[in-house]
Design a protein that fits this description.
Blueprint (H helix, E strand, L loop, with lengths): L9 H5 L15 E2 L11 H9 L14 H11 L6 E4 L1 H13 L6 E5 L4 H9 L3 E5 L10 H5 L4 E5 L11 H10 L3 E5 L13 H4 L3 E6 L12 E4 L2 H10 L7 H12 L1 H24 L3 E2 L6 E5 L5 H10 L2 E2 L12 E4 L3 H12 L1
Parallel strand pairs: 1-11, 3-4, 3-5, 5-6, 6-7
Antiparallel strand pairs: 2-8, 7-8, 9-10, 10-12
The site of pyridoxal-5'-phosphate (PLP) has 13 residues, from helix 4.
């Protein structure tokens, strides 16, 4: 047999790939590490699963998911032409990177932020510009100056893993001052006091990306959607895989998005638990970043995030730790149920 040589593009050989948060096989762990929703999906989705017409699976799904897009348009106050759907919002990010970046067209994003962005840039073979946040994770005045050479600017709002928001007025300045496309990754915006969905009416260069993974308790279903002007949507449609959202996902996501009452109740429970955990951690002298999302970024009094991460792991409590100069003090804790968070706090008190 011939000796193996690498057949990959050099960009692929040079990169190490995205590392997702741990998805443990053992179930008795307290899993507060990947920002899933601790509550079940709405009853209509559970019923829909039981009643789904399995015979139809021999057919391809609707490639443009029109019925689902109509539902999203109706609930979020736009038209079908303003909506594109994807296989989770990670797929939407891939579509955007493929559509707007290449060797000559770079991307800019915050630092720290969602660690998938540099991986997508490497895959696409585009340069990326990291825009450092200040020590308190707010933006610096020179954000636009730094982002200027890029064709795509990704702003994560609320940001991950920090959980805080850039002020709406600053967002408006960013969107009007940036010459390329601004993709606002609103994966966590349902837990936030405000959001940028309305910007799509104001700015022809803004894409707002959403997911049902967090606020609708459907991380396993895989559905993301984006809202933008019809021209941007039309172009992104050319880039997506033909059948990027499967038939069951189209059907079940529609049921979930229609049930806004259940959705609002679940989100309210999580934001109430977030407030409670924030004060409990502060009472234990933790430094807690003001969170607008379904997780907290919190630093223990000794500033050693890694040590606490490991100590919790020994107690079968998994949170997420991000090594690095600006993030190493902290751990990221997903907001779970009241009982789950009590178990965490009881251990921390010890
Ligand atoms: C900022 C951000 N964007 C997008 C995603 C992807 O979500 P999904 O692909 O489940 O829709 C995540 C997941 O954790 C995230 O943190």
């Amino acid at each position: 047999m011939k000796k193996y040589r690498s057949y990959f593009r050099p960009e692929i050989d040079a990169m190490s790939g995205y590392t997702p948060g741990e998805q443990p096989k053992v179930m008795d762990l307290l899993k507060l590490n990947t920002n899933e929703n601790p509550y079940p999906p709405c009853p209509a989705v559970l019923d829909g699963l039981k009643n789904a017409d399995g015979e139809r699976l021999r057919l391809y799904p609707d490639p443009t998911a029109d019925k689902l897009r109509d539902t999203i348009a109706e609930v979020y106050g736009y038209e079908r032409e303003n909506i594109i759907v994807s296989n989770g919002s990670d797929d939407m990010l891939t579509i955007a990177f493929r559509a707007f970046t290449d060797a000559e067209r770079s991307v800019a994003f915050l630092d720290p932020t969602y660690s998938l962005y540099p991986v997508l840039a490497d895959l696409q073979g585009c340069q990326y510009i990291k825009i450092p946040l200040k020590e308190d994770f707010s933006i610096s005045n020179d954000l636009l100056e730094k982002a200027a050479p890029a064709n795509l600017l990704v702003i994560t709002r609320p940001n991950a893993p920090t959980g805080n928001n850039i002020a709406i007025d600053d967002m408006r300045k960013i969107c009007s001052g940036f010459d390329g496309v601004v993709l606002i990754d609103e994966a966590y915006a349902d837990f936030s006091a405000d959001n940028c969905i309305g910007f799509v009416r104001e700015f022809p260069n803004v894409i707002v990306s959403r997911t049902v993974s967090k606020s609708y308790s459907l991380a396993g279903l895989r559905l993301g959607f984006a809202i933008a002007c019809p021209e941007l949507i039309e172009g992104m449609m050319k880039v997506k895989d033909s059948y990027n959202v499967n038939m069951l996902t189209q059907y079940l996501a529609e049921l979930a998005i229609r049930d806004q009452e259940y959705f609002s109740k679940t989100v309210a429970k999580i934001t109430a638990s977030r407030a409670k955990l924030t004060s409990e951690l502060k009472a234990l002298d933790f430094e807690v970043v003001d969170s607008q999302s379904n997780f907290l970024f919190a630093a223990p009094p000794d500033g050693d995030g890694e040590k606490l991460f490991k100590a919790l792991r020994e107690q079968n409590i998994i949170v997420r730790y991000f090594p690095g100069e600006s993030t190493g003090k902290y751990i990221r804790i997903t907001i779970g149920t009241e009982e789950q968070l009590q178990r965490l706090v009881d251990f921390l008190k010890k």
